[in-house]
């Protein structure tokens, strides 16, 4: 049919011109980019059989929907045309390249990092399981057919190229010889019937002996086999052990035994069950900062922090009581929570998550520290850097040398991260110290204010007491108690003096600020990173050289190794010196905290004492007032006749007749003769109602009565 506008225009002979964004791929045409879609076209020279296979791939792709299998989409209208009578295939575009590109990276010349290995195992295993559950065998699983995509900051692996896939619904007996030669399962060479286990063989391919999973060639040319993973690698001991068992299961020569068969209870291949167990392992990786060694421990279900510390003690010799386990942000493990708190969900490897072990009984870390050992091959060229070796052998040796240089830099990076965790922990302690200091200063200031008020009030009370002693109430016992209170208040002032502690805290704050500003508080690995890049570039230049009859020495690579070792020695020396200062400051804070707590408690006790003394003195004053009132009343009852005589002596013989004055004499006289009347009432009434009456006389009478009352 005629292609729509914008579609590739046909050339002479009827073959359409492909868009420039499409480039040649394996059996089809792989995309560069078309928005978020990858457009794949069948090669024009493919025969009828391969064209049928192409159409079959499109058919399979359209019915698959899994996060680890590349997804097919409808072809955009502007590209929806036939190329050589077959349709185009639109797929999800994966921008991070394929697994082969990742494996060929010099940084991965000795294998992927543990986090990458586990992520790859999870994604590819999940994708293959999905295909098998849908009765589809891929038959051409290889690094080139596994692509990488960044989704929300996480790398996802996806299986592509199902052109050789076999749909078992078309017949369970498979005998066709298809796939990539280097990754074919053994039964395919013999043209024997095969099952889904051919995909197990291809997940991790290597040259196979019935009991071995790895083969390599010695420098002497001898080929050797091993049941263990090759060294060096980037896997912890726990993962190595389970991965070796899993690979032996996956690479079994016998297709009936490969993958472990099927579990009769679940109907699932045992290899997938073992894979789930591997991925479900909760492994805590502990970096011992006193020795620079990494300890990997598989956690038991619901294991406690105390149990973890006991296991660490048996491995490192550091007692559980002296252990301080810090997370990356300087937070200590909570002993009330399970030990799995240090394992982050979705992060399974030591190159991504680490717990840092510090010995609280030490403040100076001076070694000895574990150093990364050279492999036999690298040690061989270090001993004689000028020896001429074949390029083919040098590739392997230099790959291990690059891995060694990268490892030295990563060792420093992990130790620096441990130092950073110690700094963050110190800052947390310092924040707690500052908080307690502020509480102490606030309490001290409140105490000083209360003491000032107490001194002023007791001084006034003593002064007024002295003034009234000659004609008022006196108590030697009370006076002695008040003077004792005054002396005790002086002692409380000494308790509130926190100047000596404040000076220590200020000096410690200054020391911590200097440590934060120190250049050793920041990464010092620039030189090591430069050396790493030099080693990688040297390896890159060697890799494309023709291996036939070519020899070279390793002088430049050995120089880089030596410089990296020297650089690491220097930065680690400064790192541990700085770390020792951090731990010294932290210990000073630990020593200061109980002193501040004691001082704060003493200040609170002194504050309570001052308040109690103030309350006691006020109660005594009110008690004196009560006694005075009672005595006045009793004296007045006894002196009523005398009072009345004094009053009658001043009263006129006849009632007032003035229009302006009230007639009060009968009422006053009546009050003086009433037995239960209050004695002062008539006097006060007289003072109010008869202002012309001499108030001087009344005040003189009250003074006489008061003296009599307080002298009783």
Automatic annotation (TrEMBL):
InterPro entries, per database record: IKBKB_SDD (IPR041185), IKBKB_SDD_sf (IPR046375), IKK (IPR051180), Kinase-like_dom_sf (IPR011009), Prot_kinase_dom (IPR000719), Ser/Thr_kinase_AS (IPR008271)
Reaction(s) catalysed (UniProt annotation): L-seryl-[I-kappa-B protein] + ATP = O-phospho-L-seryl-[I-kappa-B protein] + ADP + H(+)
Protein name, UniProt field: Inhibitor of nuclear factor kappa-B kinase subunit alpha
SUPFAM superfamilies from the UniProt entry: Protein kinase-like (PK-like) (SSF56112)
GO cellular component terms given for this protein: IkappaB kinase complex; nucleus
Keywords of the record: ATP-binding, Cytoplasm, Kinase, Nucleotide-binding, Nucleus, Phosphoprotein, Serine/threonine-protein kinase, Transferase
PROSITE patterns: PROTEIN_KINASE_DOM, PROTEIN_KINASE_ST
Subcellular location(s) per record: Cytoplasm; Nucleus
EC number(s) per entry: 2.7.11.10
Superkingdom classification of source: Eukaryota
Disordered as annotated region, ranges: 1-20
GO molecular function: ATP binding; IkappaB kinase activity
């Amino acid at each position: 049919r005629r292609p729509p506008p914008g579609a590739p225009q046909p050339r002479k002979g009827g073959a359409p011109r492909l868009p420039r964004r499409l480039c040649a791929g394996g059996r089809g045409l792989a995309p560069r980019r078309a928005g978020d879609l990858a457009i794949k076209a069948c090669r024009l020279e493919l025969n009828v059989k391969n064209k049928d296979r192409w159409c079959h791939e499109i058919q399979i792709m359209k019915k698959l929907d899994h996060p680890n299998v590349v997804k097919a989409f409808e072809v955009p209208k502007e590209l929806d045309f036939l190329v050589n009578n077959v349709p185009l295939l639109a797929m999800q575009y994966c921008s991070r390249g394929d697994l082969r590109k990742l494996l060929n990276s010099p940084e991965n010349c000795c294998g992927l990092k543990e986090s990458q290995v586990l992520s790859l195992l999870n994604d590819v295993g999940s994708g293959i399981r999905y295909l098998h559950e849908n009765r589809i065998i891929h038959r051409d699983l290889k690094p080139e057919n596994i692509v990488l995509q960044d989704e929300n900051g996480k790398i996802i692996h996806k299986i592509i190229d199902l052109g050789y896939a076999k749909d078992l619904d078309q017949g369970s007996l498979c005998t066709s010889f298809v796939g990539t030669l280097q990754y074919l399962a053994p039964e395919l060479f013999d043209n024997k019937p095969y099952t889904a286990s051919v995909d197990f063989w291809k997940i991790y391919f290597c040259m196979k002996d019935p009991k071995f999973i790895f083969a390599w060639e010695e420098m002497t040319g001898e080929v050797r086999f091993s049941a263990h993973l090759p060294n060096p690698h980037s896997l912890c001991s726990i993962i190595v052990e389970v991965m070796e068992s899993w690979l032996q299961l996956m690479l079994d020569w016998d297709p009936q035994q490969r993958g472990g068969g099927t579990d009769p209870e679940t109907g699932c291949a045992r290899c997938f069950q073992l894979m789930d167990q591997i991925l479900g392992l909760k492994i805590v990786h502990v970096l011992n900062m006193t020795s620079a060694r990494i300890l990997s421990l598989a956690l038991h279900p619901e294991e406690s922090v105390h149990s973890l510390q006991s296991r660490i003690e048996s491995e490192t010799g550091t007692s559980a009581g002296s252990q301080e386990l810090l997370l990356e942000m300087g937070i200590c493990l909570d002993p009330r929570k399970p030990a799995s708190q240090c394992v982050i969900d979705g992060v399974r490897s030591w190159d991504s998550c680490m717990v840092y072990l510090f010995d609280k009984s030490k403040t100076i870390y001076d070694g000895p520290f574990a150093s990364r050992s050279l492999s036999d091959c690298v040690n061989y060229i270090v001993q004689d850097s000028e020896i001429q070796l074949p390029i083919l052998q040098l590739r392997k040796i230099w790959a291990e040398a690059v891995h060694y240089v990268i490892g030295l830099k990563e060792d420093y990076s992990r130790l620096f991260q441990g130092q950073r965790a110690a700094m963050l922990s110190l800052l947390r302690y310092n924040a707690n110290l500052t908080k307690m200091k502020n509480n102490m200063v606030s309490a001290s200031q409140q105490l000083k204010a209360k003491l000032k008020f107490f001194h002023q009030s007791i001084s006034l009370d003593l002064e007024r007491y002295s003034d009234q002693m000659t004609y008022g109430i006196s108590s030697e016992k009370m006076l002695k108690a008040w003077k004792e209170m005054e002396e005790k208040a002086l002692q409380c002032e000494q308790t509130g003096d926190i100047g000596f502690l404040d000076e220590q805290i200020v000096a410690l704050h200054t020391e911590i600020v200097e440590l934060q500003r120190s250049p050793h508080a920041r990464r010092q690995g620039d030189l090591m990173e430069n050396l790493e890049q030099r080693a990688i570039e040297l390896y890159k230049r060697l890799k494309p050289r023709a291996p036939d009859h070519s020899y070279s020495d390793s002088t430049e690579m050995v120089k880089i190794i030596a410089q990296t070792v020297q650089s690491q020695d220097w930065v680690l020396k400064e790192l541990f010196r700085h770390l020792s200062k951090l731990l010294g400051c932290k210990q000073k804070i630990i020593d200061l905290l109980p002193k501040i707590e004691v001082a704060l408690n003493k200040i609170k006790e002194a504050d309570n004492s001052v308040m109690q003394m103030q309350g006691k003195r006020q109660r005594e004053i009110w008690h004196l007032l009560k006694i005075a009132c009672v005595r006045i009343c009793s004296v007045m009852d006894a002196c009523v006749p005398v009072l009345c005589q004094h009053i009658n002596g001043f009263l006129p013989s006849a009632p007032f007749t003035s229009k302006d004055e009230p007639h009060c004499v009968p009422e006053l006289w009546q009050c003086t003769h009433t037995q239960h009347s209050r004695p002062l009432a008539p006097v006060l009434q007289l003072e109010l109602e008869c202002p012309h009456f001499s108030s001087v006389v009344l005040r003189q009478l009250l003074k006489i009565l008061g003296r009599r009352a307080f002298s009783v």
